Give the backbone structure.
Amino acid sequence: MRIVDLINKKKHGERLTKEEIEFVINGYTSGDLPDYQVSALLMAIYFKGMDTQEIADLTHAMVHSGDVVDLSQIQGIKVDKHSTGGVGDKISLIVIPLVASVGVPVAKMSGRGLGHTGGTIDKLEAIEGFKVELSNETFINNVNTYKMAIVGQTGNLTPADKKLYALRDVTGTIDSIPLIASSIMSKKIAAGTDAIVLDVKVGSGAFMKSLDDARELAKTMVNIGNALNRKTVAVITNMDQPLGHEVGNANEIKEAIEVLRGHGAEDETQVALTIASYMAVLGGAFKETTEAKAHFEKVIASGEAIELLKKFIEIQGGNPQVVDHPEKLPTAKYHLDIKSDMEGYIAGFDAEKVGIAAMMLGAGRRRKEDVIDFAAGITVAKKMGDHVNLGDVLCVLHSNSPDVLEVEKVVRTAFMFSSNQPEPTQYIYEIIE
């Protein structure tokens, strides 16, 4: 078998077989196939696409290019969730204790943030003592005992995806739906869970800018999950503005606490309840999501959710006192109010610019080796539909450096004004089952 023949085959829009895809993935992972030939194949895939079976075969080959986590010792239907990335996205911190409250095991493997989107692992490390590296025995014991655990991704999970992603990044093939979908789903399937709820973000702060593209990605990933015997649901959610009010690691922990106390912003509360409800249904705790959602609202109102968050932090070595005393979380030295020089309604948002501004403050990474400042971030005071008077605070920059002039310039351009009040914001667009 020669890769040049497979390049020509895909160049003409023909279908690659399972054996041909495995030849490419195994050869590239081992170093037998050069970058320039795999780059050519990626570009052919970019232009000609792949059918459902090809994408499933590609995902399967990537899953088995490295370690596959064995969670067979965990009792029950193990459920995970994945977000395609956004600004202020703290949903995992909220849903883990909620889903655990109904006995559905959440065995979650998460990554770190890069660019304008934050990572769940970075946020949790803002809590003093919180361990994101657990032994396999501790991880399994925590899930069996408390129904919840989260760890960082292992070094040899889907090595083919790591190599392919790096190559896509420098060859203009990042935005290919077959390649995006197989990349995401290979990591989720290799992590060993039985069911997956996908939070597919769409809008200015998301990778997918249009609803049509988000829908295509969601359907592709659900098809992959089904083809590889994983119960999979995708929830398409709005990322045209930051989720909630806080962006930044310690700030987002504080806001997740508020949601679990019943005082969270409407958008993040509704998205979290929806994601948690589908996780609970896939895990067998409920037959209908409406029933699950009503139950989770009671779990929050009763105080059970906040107690489970404390337990979650405690069993992973963190200081649970941060839940009742969030001032124990890292706090920035400087807080700068960005005041409006216009009057009107917030009619639009460039959420990506808010994420970039937070990264510039130190809350995110430009490069993988950058060090995170857990205290840095942005509080968004005005959101879409809000009326703004001259001099009202639009947002607050939290920084350990007094020099934030460039950040202010970026964040000011994120707010778009109108004299007319816009239509109410839709938080959830569609469910793909």
